[in-house]
Amino acid sequence: MPRFFVTKEAISEDEIAIVGADAHHIARSLRMAEGDGLTVCDGSGLEYDCTLTRIRDEECICKIHSFAKSEREPKIAITLYMAYPKGDKLETVIQKAVELGAGAIVPFESSRCIKRPKAEKADKQTARLQRIADEAAKQCGRAIIPTVSQPVSYKEMLDMASAASLPLLCYESEDGRSIKDELKGKTPDSIAIIVGSEGGFSPDEVGRAKECGIISVSLGNRILRCETAPSYALSAISYEYELG
Predict the structure, then answer these.
(1) Between 20 and 30 A from 205 (CA), which of 27, 78, 171, 198?
(2) What are residue 49's DSSP bridge partners?
(3) Quick one: which of 52, 59, 16 has its CA closest to 33?
């Protein structure tokens, strides 16, 4: 069933108004008809079961039949902090992270980043990456649209990530703790997953993270590509907390 996101202001007692590009998409691309069903989300985790009662290019009106809290959203707030990779890898990382339950993605700059974000292009790049997150959220049935932030510095990332209940830095040279060990038996309210770029993290960066209370963890015996590691870590979280 088609899925759309609206602001809470678009929702009245028994109707929802869908406007702009989404209304045009309903009318022209999907060629939906009055009486067709669709799911509308308000961005807070609620899903509304609706039918279309009026279709116009600029505005479509839906009748609300029922609403409920989505069962597809993780119970734990998960933020992925991803060091800027080269090429279009960040696009893939964002798409898969949204599918696997991340609620926010924060790119950051580390010492071993090969590609570095350009300040003058930050707004345009972030808007494009946010559109990728939007489409991924609709495709996989999320009830919220995860946010993609503008790139931050390594220090800013440490300050943000250390505020999570369980902040984890994925480090290929870690041999004392695994992500399995750190997740097992714990019930955090929030998790931060920190992943490096192609060159990983320097020992100094790992040391600074530990000083902030961030836990260095291994993702197993194999060294994963930077675009693979986030999916591995997020899948481990899903296995531990969502399947049971």
Answers:
(1) 78
(2) 39, 66
(3) 52
Dihedral-angle region of residue 173 (phi above 0 means left; psi in -120 to 50 means alpha; beta otherwise): alpha
What would the DSSP string read from start to end of the chain?
A: --EEE--GGGB-SSEEEEETHHHHIIIIIS---TT-EEEEE-SSSEEEEEEEEEE-SSEEEEEEEEEEE-SSS-SSEEEEEEEPPSTTHHHHHHHHHHHTT-SEEEEE--TT-SS---GGGHHHHHHHHHHHHHHHHHHHT-SS--EEPPPB-HHHHHHHHTTSSEEEEE-TT--S-BHHHHHTT---SEEEEEE--TT---HHHHHHHHHTTPEEEB--SSPPPTTTHHHHHHHHHHHHHT--
**Backbone CA torsion sign across 67, 69, 73, 78:** positive
Instruction: Enumerate residues 6+ apart whose C-beta is below 8 A from 1.
Output: 37, 38, 39
pLDDT digits (tens, 9 = 90+) for 48-103: 999 999 999 999 999 999 999 999 999 999 999 999 999 999 999 999 999 999 99
CB 230 within 8 A of CB 82: yes
Order across the sheet with 104-108: list the strands: 147-148, 104-108, 77-83, 190-195, 166-170, 215-217
The Cα–Cα gap between 142 and 16 comes to 19
